[in-house]
Each structure stands twice: as C-alpha cells, then as structure tokens.
Design the sequence.
C-alpha cells in the first residue's frame, strides 16, 4: 500500500511541476468526458420529457381516428364517426372508463375588444378524465349542458392570458367567431410538449355546441378513450377492434379505415427517436474521449523519453521494473482521472445549459458521472500501459548513459 | 571466501564483423572488505567489468559468482533484486534527482525497499552525517558544489548498507582538491566500516588510495598490483 501512496505522491509531484502540460494533456479527456456526460444527460432529459408529455396526454389513453394510418402523422380520408358509434363502443367494449368525442375547429376568440385565433375542441367531461386534465378554477360541464350542447366553455391558460389579460375569465361571455359562450372554468396549465406545441392554447366546449355553431355538421373526427387500468389495455384494444370493424364494415385488413393509437405506442415511437439520437451523439462524444486517451499515451511516451536518465537512476538505486511501471501507470491514471473529474463538472454544467435551452428536465445520473471519471482513469491506465512498459523495460545501464 | 569472483568472463558487443570484445577472458576475485581500483585506458574494459560486477550487464560467456550466487543464470528481475539487496552505486555524473532535496535523494533507495517513512528519514540523516553533510539535507543538488553532490551520492549508495560499493570514476567530474576529499571519504569508509569498495579510475593519484590496483588493457587483466600499506594523507 505504501508503494501505491508513494507512486501517487510521485505522480502528483511530477504532474504539478509540469502543470501546463498536465492541463493540456488532460484537456482531451476533459472534452471527451464532458461531451459524453452532456449528451447522455440531455438525451435522458429528452426521454424524461417525452415520458412527461405522454403522461400529460392521460394515462391508458387510446385515440381512434377516422382513416387508415399512413405513417405517424398522416391518414387516408374516411367517413367520420357519429354519436351512435360512441354509444355502441360504450356498450360493447369492456374496461373503458371514458369514451369521449373530439371535434376541433379553428375560431377567433374575442373579449373586450381583444381578438385571438385559437382552437375550439368539442367534447364532454369524460374528455377531462381521459386526458388527465383538471381545472384551476370554475367547474366542468354539467350533464345537461353536454346533452343540449349548451353555450358554455372551459379556457386554457394561454387563452386566458391572451384574451382576458390574465384576469379571472369565469363568468365572462367569450365570443367565438359568430357565436359566443359563457366561460365556466379555467383549465390547469400544462405548458409545451416536446414537439413545442402549446397545450394551453385551446377552448373546450360541449361537442354539440361545436358541431352546431362552429363546424356545421354532426361528424366526430376522433374518439378519445380511457382504459380503466394498464393491465386491460390489450383486452380493450381487441374489443375495440372488433366493434370498430363491425361498425365500419371492414372485411379484411386491407380495407381498415380507422387508426387506433395508444400511449404506449407513442412512447415507444418518441423515445425510440431520442434513444437513437442520444446513442449517436454519445458515440461521437466517445470518439473524442478515445482521442483524449491517445493524447495521454503520446505525452507519456514523450515523458518516458525525457526522463530516461531519471528512470536509470531509480533502477540503479533499487527500483524494480514494477516500481517504474507503477510510477508511470499512476501518472497516466492521475492524468486521466483529473481530466475526467474536470470533464464531469463541465459535463454537468453543459447538461444544465442544454436542458434549459431545449426546455427538457435536468437529469444527471450519478452513475454516469462516477462511471465516466472511473472510465477516464481506466483510459489513463490503458493508454499509459505502453509508455510505462517502455520505461520499465529500459536497461538501467543504457538509461543512465542517455 | 571471496565476495565476488569472475572466471573466464567475456563480454562481446555488436554482431558479425563489427564485434568488439569489451572483456576477453577476465578472472578476478574480490574479498570482503577490500578496496580495489580498476585502471586502464578508455576502451580497456574496466567500466564493462564494473557493470558486470554491479549486475547491470551480463557476461556473454564465463561465470560470475556474487556471494556464492551464479549471476549469469539469473533473469533480469532476479538481478535487479540482487542489486537492490547488496550493491550500492556511485557514478561519475553523481546522478542525483535534481528536483529532490539531498535528504530525499538519500532516502530514495529505502523507499524502494519499503522502509517506513520515519525509519527512512532517520537512516538518511545518519548517512548524510557520515559523509559530513548533516546540515545540507534540505538543499537541492544544484545548490551544492560538485564535491558535495558526490558525497550525497555516496550517502545514497551507503544508506542501504550494501555489501559492495561500486564507484565509476567517482572523481571524474571534480577538481583535484574535491577529488581528494571524496577519496579520503571512501578511504575512511573502508577503514572504519570495513566497506568493500570497487572503483574505476584512470587517475593513478586516486588509485593510490586503494589497497589493490587491477590494470586493464584490451579487455584483459594486464597486472594485478597490491599497493603497499602507506601513510594515509591526513585531511586538511
């Protein structure tokens, strides 16, 4: 043990004596480690952000849309759904806690001389449950209001800010295009999702109101469904498929004219993208770490050449091969660890900056930080091995002559 | 019994036509407690002989026994251990570590022998005291004169209490007065402590301090001369 402490003492003396060289040699590792930590950290932040988004959509959510899927964002046009379709789904499919219509229309909201273009979504109070939304003020729609399609609405935080200047909108009469509704509640703030979409920029009204006053038809473009437990999602999906095929007279897989998306699929899709990106960027960062290791090897080789005479002296007064080996390996290890530790600090700082720029959660895994410092020390040992062996294999008699 | 014994030792450098017989059939015995100088012109093989004695170099052929151990059959590692255990070196160029103080230089051999720090320090101070530099422990080599540096180097060689002290032209880099200082020190160590010393020199004046002078020429021992006991010059 005293051998190791001695080697550490020697290494730190040597490295502080030549501190500018030490700093420059460690720089490669520093940049590499900082890059890896920042990439992994930001990647994990993005993944966490996706997970948050999906959770914000509501748990165990299924979305049914008219038209066959042609990739993540596009669908073929097809016959929309009707209120009767929803009733049948409610009756036939088990394990559903909410089945709500979703009809959207663009409208200009106006109040007190201020106008603002927003989206009006028509649905029912089950929609709040399915999406996991709650109210900051006021109340949800009553059953009567839903049935009759009364002129009442809930507003999102953005609409409140833009149209009502931040004051309490409950009770106000909000104009929506050519019609108007009474604001009965304020939706809880949800912020932007990972795609940068403002989830608070909406007005929610009973579906009948939106159909009659804004869309002018009884079509329902999509259905939002909440499954009562995660365990029943597959069961509910199967039941839903059966009912929908019957409803829409689908006879073969080729003529399916609806799309069911579930949150798990969305998570998988979105986290797939972030995982691939994180992996790719981390690999690039890893290359810079490798280059840093080669830098250590280079400088250690130079150092061995410069200190050949010192090695000869040490060997002639009793240092064994392993003493010399240990001395140079320790030096390389300390070089790596110093670069790694500084890189970890920089990496965590970069993660913080990156997270706030990209508006993703600041995630730092202690294991990643500790691991990369340990890995850098290991890199030092790995890349220091060749120079150290070269030093240890010197013949003292030749080394003294240099 | 001899402390060391060379028999028919040859050392050949180079390959093929460019071969040089640095040693060409040497026989040499050194008793415990001897004070021997190896003399000869450059290229006569005296330094190669010293390197072989110090286990720094291996004979191409022949036998070298040190304390009864056949050194020629030992591997590199075993030779290093043997060197570490029994042999101290003093070089012409002092070979101190420039960035370490005199005391740290003297301590260094003990570090490699795994001696505890307090014990190390004590023995290093004793050795410095022995060479008359007790008050210079904190100085760096470049703050010391050449003679003082060589005395630090001698203290470093002695701190491990080696059976054999080898000195390769220990006065080669010193002026006459300093050379005599160093020779008087070696002579005193031999006389008072019975230290076995083998030294290489080309100065007859310095060889005169020793008991026995082995003359080398062309890789062979030309003459082995006993120096008659004489008055040791008193230190000024």
Sequence:
């Amino acid at each position: 043990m005293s051998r190791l402490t001695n080697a550490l003492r020697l290494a730190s003396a040597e490295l502080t004596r030549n501190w500018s060289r030490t700093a420059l040699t460690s720089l490669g590792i520093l940049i590499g480690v900082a890059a890896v930590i920042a990439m992994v950290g930001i990647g994990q932040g993005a993944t966490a952000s996706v997970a948050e988004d999906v959770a914000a959509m509501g748990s165990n959510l299924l979305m049914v849309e008219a038209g066959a899927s042609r990739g993540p964002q596009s669908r073929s046009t097809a016959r929309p759904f009707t209120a009767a379709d929803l009733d049948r789904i409610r009756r036939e499919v088990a394990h559903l806690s909410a089945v709500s219509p979703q009809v959207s229309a663009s409208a200009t909201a106006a109040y007190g001389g201020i106008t603002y273009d927003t989206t009006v979504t028509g649905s029912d109070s089950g929609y709040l449950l399915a999406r996991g939304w709650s109210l900051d003020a006021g109340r949800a729609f009553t059953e009567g209001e839903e049935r009759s399609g009364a002129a009442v609405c809930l507003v999102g935080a953005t609409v409140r800010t833009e149209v009502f200047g931040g004051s309490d909108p409950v009770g106000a009469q909000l104009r929506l295009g050519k019609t108007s509704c009474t604001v009965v509640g304020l939706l809880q703030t949800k912020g932007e999702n990972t795609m940068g979409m403002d989830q608070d920029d909406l007005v929610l009204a009973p579906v009948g109101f939106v159909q009659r006053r804004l869309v002018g038809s009884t079509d329902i473009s999509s259905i939002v469904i909440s499954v009562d437990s995660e365990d029943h999602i597959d069961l509910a999906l199967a039941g839903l498929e059966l009912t929908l095929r019957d409803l829409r007279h689908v006879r073969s897989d080729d003529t399916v004219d609806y799309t069911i998306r579930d949150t798990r699929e969305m998570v998988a899709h979105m986290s797939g993208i972030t995982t691939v990106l994180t992996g790719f960027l981390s690999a690039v960062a890893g290359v810079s770490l490798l280059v840093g290791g080669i830098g250590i090897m280079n400088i250690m080789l130079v150092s061995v050449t410069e200190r050949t005479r010192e090695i000869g002296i040490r060997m002639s007064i009793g240092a064994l091969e392993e003493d010399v080996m240990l001395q140079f390996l320790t030096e390389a290890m300390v070089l790596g660890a110093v670069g790694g530790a500084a890189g970890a600090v920089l990496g965590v700082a970069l993660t913080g900056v990156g997270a706030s720029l990209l508006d993703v959660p600041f995630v730092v895994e202690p294991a990643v930080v500790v691991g990369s410092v340990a890995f850098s020390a290991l890199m030092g040992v790995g890349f220091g091995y060749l120079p150290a062996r070269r030093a240890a294999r010197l013949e003292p008699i030749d080394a003294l002559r240099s | 019994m001899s402390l060391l014994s060379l028999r028919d030792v040859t050392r050949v450098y180079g390959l093929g036509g460019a071969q040089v017989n640095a040693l060409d059939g040497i026989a040499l015995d050194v008793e415990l407690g001897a004070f021997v100088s190896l003399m000869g012109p450059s290229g006569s093989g005296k330094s190669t002989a010293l390197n072989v004695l110090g286990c720094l170099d291996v004979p191409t052929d022949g036998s070298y026994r040190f304390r009864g151990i056949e050194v020629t059959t030992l591997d590199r590692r075993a030779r290093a251990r043997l060197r570490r255990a029994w042999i101290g070196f003093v070089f012409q160029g002092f070979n101190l570590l420039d960035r370490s103080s005199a005391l740290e230089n003297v301590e260094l051999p003990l570090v490699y022998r795994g001696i505890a720090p307090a014990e190390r320090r004590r023995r290093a101070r004793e050795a410095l005291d022995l060479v008359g530099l007790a008050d210079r422990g904190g100085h760096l080599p470049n703050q010391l004169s050449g003679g003082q540096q060589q005395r630090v180097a001698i203290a470093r060689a002695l701190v491990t209490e080696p059976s054999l002290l080898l000195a390769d032209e220990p006065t080669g880099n010193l002026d006459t007065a300093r050379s005599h200082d160093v020779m008087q020190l070696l002579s005193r160590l031999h006389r008072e402590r019975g230290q076995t010393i083998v030294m290489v020199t080309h100065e007859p004046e310095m060889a005169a301090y020793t008991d026995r002078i082995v003359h080398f020429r062309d890789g062979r021992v030309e003459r082995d001369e006993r120096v008659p006991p004489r008055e040791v010059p008193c230190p000024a």
